Amino acid sequence: MNKFIRTLAVTYDIDLEPREIPLFRGAVIGSFGGDANLLYHNHLENNKLRYSYPLIQYKRLGRKAAIICVEEGADIIGQFIGNAPQTISMGERNVTLKTMRITPARILMQVWNSMFEYKISRWLPLNPANYRKYQAMESLAERIKMLEKILCSNILSMLKGLGIWLEEDLKVSITDIGKPYKIYNKSVALMAFDASFTSNLSIPDNLGIGKNVSIGYGTVFQIKKSKSNIEDETK
Prior knowledge:
Elements: E1 3-15, H1 21-30, H2 38-41, E2 56-61, E3 64-70, H3 72-76, H4 78-81, E4 87-90, E5 93-96, E6 99-109, E7 111-123, H5 128-136, H6 140-161, E8 172-177, E9 181-185, E10 188-201, E11 219-222
Antiparallel strand pairs: 1-3, 1-6, 2-3, 4-5, 7-10, 7-11, 8-10, 9-10
C-alpha cells in the first residue's frame, strides 16, 4: 500500500550542537508543564514507552534547531507553536525561541522504477551483537552487504510505523560510507555512520531511519530531487 506522507519542518534560529539535541527536546517538552501530547515524548504511564515510529523528531538541520513533524505530529505541533515561551533553557544556557521557517510537504512514499539518491547522517545500525559480527568481517564488501541489509530492515520498520506495506521489493544499495565514529547516548557508546545510498523508494527529507531517530539520528535527505512524487504544497 502506497501512501502520501505529510511532514512539517519547523526550524528555529538557535545554533545547536549535536550533543544539545536531547536538551532541545527536553526544553520543548518541559515547556508544556506536564501537559505535552504523547507524541512529543513517547512516554506512556507507569514508565512504559510508545514503541512505534516517532512522529515528532528533534533535529539539527543546517546547524539550527528543528522539529520534524510527521502525519499526526504535524496536526499537534500547533500546541507548541501557538503557546511556545519566548525563551527556553537548554542545559546551562537560555535561548530565544525565534522561528526561522515552517516548511510543509506531502510526499508519496512508494517503490518506483527509478532509483533515488540519498544521504544519511549519524546512522546507528549496530547493536553490540552485530557490531562484533561487523568487526570480525575482513572484507569491506561483506561489511557493506551487512549494512545494506540493516538499512533495508530499518526502512521497512519505518514504513510499518507509518502504516505502509510494500507490494514490490525494496532495493537499497550503499554507494559511499565514511569511517564509523563514536557517539554517546546516555553514557552508552555507539558507532555512528554517515553514508550515501540509493533506493527505489521515495523517502521524505529529514525523516529519521534506525535507532534514536527522535533525537536526530539517522536523518535522511534526497540528493537529487524528483518532482514526480511531490504534491504541490499550496494545494
